[in-house]
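Subject: design request, 190 residues
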């Protein structure tokens, strides 16, 4: 079954950030993410930045939406319009009532609650407007910051998935988190 193209909406993420579709003007964010030790290992961000590689990354985000594979959002600070990171809602298992999420922030934007604001906005939209029954995300056991973000938003830790994902040259364990519509009423989700 071929998925219909998706329109990436503009979502408010608290009162300091918006989530929007990728633009070619977001190349400085791709450049910063390329220099991160971890982001290129777990995403399609190029590990060596060039104009062509950056543009190819942005085009891949457009393709994800146009092919129906998911919603790739750029996290943008309203105050100055600066792109700070990405959050994605991936629909590979939507026919089963599930979708997965992923997020990353440029190093200069970490530790400020930005990922939680962005994740919370996408979660509410996915569970509410899109009526997806179950959201999942995966975090490496050592990544305490991403675990705190997921738990702060209201995700429930379900367990360790051994050797779940290829990261760089090796298979790595991942902790699975989930959220259901009923979880939105929990204090952590507010």
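Subject: RE: design request

Done. Sequence follows.
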């Amino acid at each position: 079954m071929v998925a219909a193209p998706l329109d990436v909406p503009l979502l408010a993420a608290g009162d300091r950030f918006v989530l929007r579709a990728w633009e070619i003007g977001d190349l400085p964010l791709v450049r910063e993410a390329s220099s991160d030790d971890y982001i290129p290992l777990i995403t399609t961000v190029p590990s060596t930045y060039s104009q062509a590689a950056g543009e190819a990354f942005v085009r891949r985000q457009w393709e994800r939406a146009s092919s129906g594979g998911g919603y790739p959002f750029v996290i943008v600070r309203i105050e100055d319009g600066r792109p700070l990171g990405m959050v994605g809602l991936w629909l590979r298992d939507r026919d089963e009532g599930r979708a997965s999420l992923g997020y990353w922030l440029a190093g200069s934007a970490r530790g400020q609650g930005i990922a939680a604001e962005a994740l919370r906005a996408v979660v509410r939209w996915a569970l509410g407007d899109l009526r997806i029954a179950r959201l999942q995300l995966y975090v490496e056991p050592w990544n305490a910051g991403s675990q705190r973000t997921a738990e702060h938003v209201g995700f429930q830790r379900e367990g360790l998935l051994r050797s779940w994902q290829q990261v760089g040259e090796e298979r790595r364990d991942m902790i699975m988190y989930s959220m259901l519509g009923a979880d939105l009423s929990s204090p952590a989700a507010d």
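Strands lie at 11-13, 17-20, 70-77, 83-90, 98-105, 134-139, 156-167, 170-180.
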